[in-house]
Write a structure and sequence with these properties.
Elements lengths: L23 E2 L15 H4 L4 H7 L3 E12 L3 H5 L6 E15 L3 E5 H4 L4 E5 L5 E10 L4 E6 L22 E6 L7 E13 L9 E4 L11 E3 L5 E8 L10 E5 H12 L8 E2 L2 E5 L2 H7 L7 E6 L4 H5 L6 E5 L2 E2 L3 H9 L6 E8 L2 E8 L1 E2 L10 E2 L8 E5 L2 H6 L9 E6 L4 H5 L6 E5 L2 E2 L3 H7 L6 E7 L2 E7 L1
Length: 467
Amino acid sequence: MKTRSIVLAAAFALSACGNPSNSKAQEGEFAQPTRTAPADAAGMKSSFAPVVRSAAPAVVNISARSVQRVQADPFFQFFGGGIPQARVAESVGSGVIVRSDGIVVTNNHVIDGAQQIKVVLNDRREFPATVILADERSDIAVLRLENVSDRLPVLAIDDQEEQQVGDLVLAIGNPFGVGQTVTNGIISALNRTETGISDSGSFIQTDAAINPGNSGGALVDMDGDLIGINTAIFSRSGSSAGVGFAVPAAMVKRVVDSALGGATAVVRPWLGVKGDTVTGDIAGSLGLSRPQGLVVTDAYANGPAARAGIRQGDVITAVDGQEINDQNGLNYRVGSRNPNDQVQVSILRDGRAQTVTARVQTLPGDADPKQGVTIQSGPFAGAEVVALSPALADRLGGDPFATGVIVTGVSGRGYAARAGFRQNDLIVSINGRAIGSARDVEAASSGRGPWEVVVNRGGRQIRGVLR
């Protein structure tokens, strides 16, 4: 299966220090309200203090503690000693109060694996907190403060996407654990995709200084509203280099609404297409004036796009007026909607522009399968398998269009374990026969070998012969 792009490059740190891969921005802009530049020196000397006074009380510091078991020194283990020791790990980050009864938004990586979470308000009050919902793909987690007796200050979530490149913004958080700090800058880019942070993310880029500890903090516009949650930076030194990324408020609100609605996971709808970015060469072959859009290479049978009339070879240029240039951008635009929402998809077909209406839906299949079928004989004996569905593939970070049978477990006493099969291996074919169910595995591997097997492991296709 395709490895999820949410798995980060070694040099890219979600704790706001690291390097993403080369990224792309969707060209085009959000809605365009009137902007006025400072007219004189007095205007240049205006202060951000009114915005800070409004926003800062809702930004909090977060301390997350976890207990990890570590092995003792091998020297002592050799002599029969060395009991594994408990080690307390602590991460420090930031968060934002978005509801007055104590609902806080932060980054998932700030609280991931924590057994104890403490939230410190701007006025130094402290509250224990519990996780309501943690969404790894967007790197957003929603917390509930305990023992809240009065109304807390909040930051309003502005999900209207009216920002423009060049707008002034403030980043508020707890860099290096020194305490609440405010930095200012501008929006450097919108709709940044292919950053390596997420395969369904489209980020706001800013040059406001963001450092370790700012993760989960607020990116605020000049109206004092929350337009993003700071999550990562591009840096070779580990400190701010002026290229920071924030999860847009539209996705933040989507996760918050899911949490408050009682969901245990964020359900992302899909359009049911996959495609390739239009390069200069592709644009030339299609007769386009410039390289822009996503050329459809496959439309899922009876999926939302297929039912709307979108087909292979179409070029998707926008969704609800927002320009699309790659698969991640499309995933974000559709994934930030609710299942069954209608979207307007702009396409080019045979050089002519048209717009179709599609109703986005959840991916078919079970994303959390029950116990699979254990193969009893043959080269896969001892392997527990389940048919791969688009929903399950998406949950595992793979291609929803992929087909095959996923290995959900391997018994140490079976032939499958001795042959080297592992959990999450995707069995694609046996002796040239496509595999789509546990029954297919049993039928294709019955009788005497050898068996030629094709397996997809971590995005790599492996071919082997079992005897």
